[in-house]
Structure formats: C-alpha cells, structure tokens
Specification:
alpha/beta, globular, 16 helices, 6-stranded parallel β-sheet
Length: about 475
C-alpha cells in the first residue's frame, strides 16, 4: 500500500491520445510519470506540454523500460497501437522488473474470448487489467440507446446506481426551484443533482441553488428511478425502435449483435463502406440488415429508410464522417442521432450542428484506466467535461472520517457532493440525517481539484496493517 500522500511511479507505453490523456491526468496529481513511445514527434509534444519524463524507444524493450525506471515503478500502463507490444511490455515489466500492477489495452476480440481467459493469468501472460476500448465504447453506446433524453449515462454500485447528465430544456419543470425543494416535492424519488455545467463551466451545487434553462445537470439516482427522473426534467423520449448504424467495425458490430440479443423487437440496419467487411458481418448477424456503401451518400441513407428511423448512431473511425452523416440523417427526417467523436475540438460545437449526443471514446478508455490507478477503496471513476470533474464510487472503511456522523455534520471539501449510498443491495438517498457505515459504497461527484481529498477520505491508513 502506498504511504499517505506518496506519489506513484507510473510508466506509460504509448504517447497517442489515450497515453497523453492519462499522463496529463496523473501528472496533474503530482504522480511520477514516465512516457515511452517510438515516435520522436509524440514524445516531443509531451515534453513541450506536460511535466513528465519521456523517452523515445520501444515500450517492450528491457533496456528502454530500465531507462524509464521500471525497477522502481508501481504500475505500467501499455496503450501503444499494437496489442502484442502491450502484452509483451507487461510481460517484460513483470518478469524482469517485478512491476506490481500491469494494465494493457487489447483490441483484438480474439484474445478476449472468455474461453482463453486463462491466457492473462500470472503464470502465463501476467496482465492485471485488460482494457478493450471497443467493448467499453460499445457498452456506453448501448446504455445511451437505452436512455434517450440523457446526454450521458453511467452505472455504479453493481449497476444499481446511475449517473445521468440531463439537459434542462425550455419547458423543463424543475428549473428555478431550489434543489432542496425538489427532494421535499418528491420524497420517494432517489435522485440527487450533484453537478451543473453552465456557460462552459462546471460547479457543484448547494441545496439552495436552482437549475436554469440550458443547464446540463448531473444527477445520481437509483437505476429504477432513471426514467422517472428524466420525465421530471421534461424528457419523455421513447426508446428507439428503428436504428441505423453507420460503420460496421468492431464497435458497430458489437452494438448490433447486443441489440439482436437484448431487444429482439428493435430493427437495426448497418451501413458499411468496405465490401468484404459488410459481407462478413452480414453472415454473423441474424436479423440486422447490412448495406454496403457510404453513409455520406443520400441514396444509401434513403435505402436504409433513414426518414423513418428513430436514431442514427455514427460509429465509423472518422469523426468527420460521423458528424456529417448524423447531420444528414436528421435533415432527411431521422428523429435523433448519436455520434462517436474522438477529436476534442469538434466536441464543443456538436450541439450547434444538430448532434443530440456524442461519445468520446478516449474519455471512456481514460476513465476506465484511471479507476485502477486511484488508491484507497475507489471502486469506479468516470470523468466528465474533459476531466473537469469525476464521479467516484468508493467503499467506506472503519477508519474513514466519513463513518458514523450524520451527513449534515460532515466537513466535506468544497466541490464534493454525495449522490447516493449503496448498502446491503439498497440505494439510500443522502439526506442530512443519514450516517455512512463501514462497507457502504458512496457514489459522489467531485470537482477535479477535490479528487485528492476524496482519495484521502477513503485511503487505508497505515495503522491498519
């Protein structure tokens, strides 16, 4: 266990978007970070902008790992473009340098099949955490399809607690009402507004604050109360019955296959530009109609019956294709759209273009990796608004300063708001009289500058050992 306040030594192999994003977040929290990449340009970009050590070299080569201080490292995170390099980097880090925690990004679905799961055990290829971006993003897309009206949606606490981001539209019934009154008006609704994004900035509200039209409210609620919460905010959108997916790559295929399995009534069509790929996924899918062509061509969209579709989901690996095809789909009469957008500079003006919701694959992957880096009893982490805040699920220990006092007497740091408490398979609303007990899971919202305090509150102190 790391000593209180001690920095972690982390080596990141791969300085692409995900590697850079993790390095940026870990360095901001004063960890000791080294980044390795074969590209001198990427390494230079990191040197110019971040306070981390960086090395040009091959992330799986023992001499390069030695130079980056692998013998002292607490953790290696291998996110190069190649699965095999990531796997070998973890193996070398384990066998030669005895690095305790190894995280690898592995894309090829063939490695991830459950009957080969033993491959990554300590005796074979020792990887502690495998991140598969396609699966993570695919699951995120499915959650968003299931909750129309939510701009973002994530699950915590054995899937019993949800965090949803909800836009307050013109006719939103809950605007201009102090938040404390909302809990009085709906005493049996397990939902708490924990964060608000207004005029391009994020704040954690007090119970006297009010929501305004145009706000994006982050709400933590019991998963069975999500629909009702969305309704309370004026969102009554129906779940999509007809979906057109642009892009039949790993994510598009994963989403279509999952919908076939879970929602047999939903009609799905996929538009895939590569002929070979279109034929191969058409063979593997049972009811999904696969069209070969470009989703930027109006006649292909019309052939997919876009004018009668409820939702266009754009999942190609080209942001511009995703944005344009989503806009075209809406012009042609499709009710709503959801686009995958990698480039952060595009994300800020999606609304003005008429894109209802977007997913940033990089943020999904970074959130997933960060939850394994966080110390103490942190069970899950999800980052919002490009890292301006995190939704954190943590387990309370006997020694935690939060245990045993009524919430109203807790001295919580500014910028932290508790959204829900999960105890004995029950979701509890965090009102002033509730006391947190040891083993409770607490789901809370924390502005970035307060994340360290949250870790501190859930840290295992050394007297414990």
């Amino acid at each position: 266990m790391a000593l209180k306040g001690s920095a972690m030594k982390v080596i990141i192999c791969g300085a692409g978007r995900v590697g850079y994003g993790i390095a940026e977040r870990l360095a901001a929290e004063d960890n000791d970070v080294s980044v390795i990449d074969t590209s001198a340009t990427l390494v230079q970009a990191i040197r110019d902008t971040l306070d981390v050590r960086s090395y040009v070299g091959h992330g799986a080569h023992p001499d390069v790992l030695a130079q980056a201080g692998a013998d002292q490292a607490d953790m290696i995170i291998a996110v190069t473009l190649y699965d095999e390099i990531n796997m070998v980097a973890c193996q070398v880090a384990h066998s030669i340098f005895n690095v305790p925690t190894k995280i690898a990004r592995i894309r090829a679905q063939s490695y991830l099949k459950s009957h080969w799961a033993d491959l990554f055990s300590r005796d074979h290829m020792p990887i502690d955490v495998i991140i598969s971006p396609e699966v993570e993003v695919g699951q995120m897309v499915l959650r968003r399809i299931a909750l129309p009206g939510a701009t973002d949606a994530v699950r915590f606490a054995d899937d019993k607690v949800a965090m949803v981001a909800i836009e307050c539209l013109e006719d939103c019934p809950v605007v201009n009402t102090p938040l404390v009154q909302l809990s009085e008006l709906f005493p049996d609704l397990l939902a708490t507004v924990v964060g608000v994004w207004r005029n391009e900035s994020l704040f954690v509200p007090h119970s006297t604050d009010q929501l305004e039209t145009g706000d994006l409210a982050y709400v933590v609620c019991d998963k069975d109360h999500v629909r009702r919460t969305l309704g309370l905010f004026g969102h009554e959108e129906q779940e999509a019955g007809r979906i057109v997916i642009s892009g039949g790559g790993n994510i598009g295929y994963y989403v279509a296959a999952a919908i076939e399995e879970r929602q047999p009534k939903t009609k799905v069509k996929i538009i895939e530009a590569d002929r070979g790929r279109a034929v191969s996924i058409a063979d593997s899918l049972a009811r999904t109609v696969v069209l070969n062509g470009s989703s930027l061509e109006q006649n292909i969209l019309v052939e997919a019956d876009i004018q009668n579709a409820d939702l266009m989901v754009a999942l190609t690996n080209d942001d511009q294709v995703n944005i344009l095809s989503s806009v075209m789909a809406k012009r042609l009469g499709c009710k709503a759209n959801l686009a995958l957008i990698n480039n952060p500079s595009y994300q800020s003006f999606t609304k003005t273009l008429g894109i209802d919701a977007h997913i940033n694959p990089r943020a999904v992957t970074i959130s997933k990796i960060l939850q394994h880096v966080r110390r103490g009893r942190i069970r899950a982490v999800y980052s919002v608004q490009k890292g301006a805040a995190e939704v954190i699920e943590a387990e309370a220990l006997d020694t935690s300063p939060l245990v045993g006092k009524p919430l109203r007497n807790l001295d919580l740091p500014d910028g932290v708001r508790i959204g829900a408490i999960y105890r004995d398979k029950q979701v509890l609303r965090p009102d002033g009289s509730v006391k947190i007990k040891a083993k409770d899971r607490v789901v809370m919202f924390s502005a970035l500058e307060s994340v360290r305090h949250v870790e501190q509150m859930f840290r295992v102190s050394l007297e414990f050992f």
